[in-house]
User: Fold this.
Amino acid sequence: MHPAVAAHDAGPTERVVLRVRVKNIDTVPLRILTNPDSNEMIWAYRLRVSPEASDRAAMFADGDRVKAFPIGQMALCTADGGAGYGGLGQPGDVTLAPGESFEAAHWDGILREEVLDPQRGVCAREIAPTPGRYRFQLDQPQLEGRPQCQRAIAAWPIAADAGAPVVLELRCRNAPRDAGPRS
Assistant:
């Protein structure tokens, strides 16, 4: 894990089935905006593709956005404590040297959804993911200079190797630079 970024999703005793890593594949440093709420940085989609579809087709398939990571500090609807959203603060950033990576998120194999409960207010409900393919991609809110990143696909249920979490790598490079006016 990059020393400037700590993944906030999984504690030491929490189950981790998938690690999402962001890697700089460019030849120059790459700035990545981070957020303690990993759902704001790593978007996950449950893809609507047939089991026979190739992973290449799945990369661009339609899907439903899901929240794979805990939602900030939002209380669970099943918790005794009050509901509501506790924000995690302002986004940060990390600069990766060429070839460097950091673990941006850990997934415990549980999906979350925000619920407006008439009795409790806004809270989070945990649900089991449905079998199928899920696409993970980096979302960067910069208006200009947004890095170009490859998406990654994981099938659920995840086939872990000897119980070790699967690692998905989002390989990124800087946005193409303008070569200037033509002569």
In short: The longest strand covers residues 166-173. The mean pLDDT is 85.
